[in-house]
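Data availability (excerpt). The following record was deposited with the supplementary files.
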Amino acid sequence: MKRTEGDESSTLVTDGAGVDWRGSNSSSVTLTREERLREIYEENVRKPMVVAWADSRTRLGLLIIGFYILVALVAIFGLWREPSTSQAPRYLMLFENMNYPLGTTASGTDLTALIIHSTPDILLMVVSGGLWATGIAVLIGTVAGYKGGSVGRVLMSISDFVMAIPGLPLVMILAITFNPKNPILLGIIININYWAGLGRSIHSQVLTIRENNYVEASRTMGVSTPRIILKDVIPNLMPYVTVNFVFAARYVVFASIGLFFLGVLPYSEQNWGVTLNFAYSGGALFSWSAAHWLLVPMAAIIGLSIGLILLGQGMDRVFNPRVRTRLAGESESTATDEKDTGMTEVL
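Predicted structure:
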């Protein structure tokens, strides 16, 4: 039966018992586009920023990594001179001449220029190597852990085989064979089999996650496997993946510096490892007047490593849903209290 109250916009559809079957509450359940965007902003931008800002380690890590990015931009835009021989007096000490604040080498090369123009390639290697290792590990580990069966056995057998290959000899063979000069390719080669051990660890974690009630509920409702992996499995792995991304990135830093120092990777003067090699060959290890030649690139390496560690520790908290919800709630309650206090003072 149809009953009209007022105009046509208030038409009510009922059955004999007078129950409204039109679904009048559907408009309150359906989110508008603005509300969806606000929800995405809250979950993916505001809450992570609140958690990150609440941790001093994250702030310090972001400051350090931001400094290295700024140095890389200085090199990219040519805001500092290119390094070259005989461009300054030999063996200038730290801050002895502010035109060359980090001193010079035995050939009169500006150490500041060497460090600045080496930074972009180092950062590209770090990011590419870290993304390669964690990306392949997450892909192999989650699929093998969630699917199980023959698929899981095959993928884990591949992972075990790759893990059994010695990493350093493999990197040396690939570097000599392909002679790569692209820093992105160099980062991938350095971490060519780093993903195998991480993939097995992720596989073990997924075996536990897939038995959780919410994953079982998604399977029961007929949600597709890729969607379950993306929405239910991987978010629970993010703290672990983030920490291991930092470990993989640090490995790229130390391995690349060591291989450049040994002369295995393609030669370039604009690299911290090559600078260390020249400093060692020039006797900087035994001469105080040349010690800065060795200490400056070492300080750059240590600073980048510390920044990655601090940032990784902070990102662990950012991707922890309990910590994020708690800190975001505290922020909201603090803001509400401040607002109420301000209104009380005005009144």
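Summary of structural features: DSSP finds 13 helices and two strands in the chain.
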